Amino acid sequence: SRQEIMLVYFAPSAFLNGMNFKNRAIQIPMHWGFFHLDGARFIAKCHKLGLQVDYWTINDKDDALKLQENGADGIMSDDPATITSALR
After folding, report:
1. List of long-range contacts for 46-53, beta carbons under 8 Å, 24+ apart
2. Which pLDDT score is estimated for 80?
3. How far apart are CA 23 and CA 49, in angstroms?
4. Tell me, what's the pLDDT at 10?
5. Confidence at residue 17, expressed as pLDDT on a 0 to 100 scale
6. Average pLDDT, the chain
């Protein structure tokens, strides 16, 4: 939920460690208003909490490459052929 994503974004890891999230994966856009959810620190924080991080809808090769480099687990796209040509 949006509330859980914002909680993960803002709350210290020590506070979140004991939380039981409803799901073990999050599927999010790269940004949500002013909040950038595509950074390596945010992705690493999610991973430490046992959350898989998937992004949607990514149709730009550079965005897909950035997400891959930052540790994203999955990328959903309307144009998978273009995206996969950028990924290693």
Report:
1. 46/8, 47/71, 48/13, 49/8, 49/13, 49/16, 49/17, 49/19, 49/21, 50/21, 50/24, 51/8, 51/21, 51/23, 51/24, 51/25, 51/26, 52/24, 52/25, 52/26, 53/25, 53/26, 53/28
2. 93
3. 11
4. 92
5. 82
6. 91
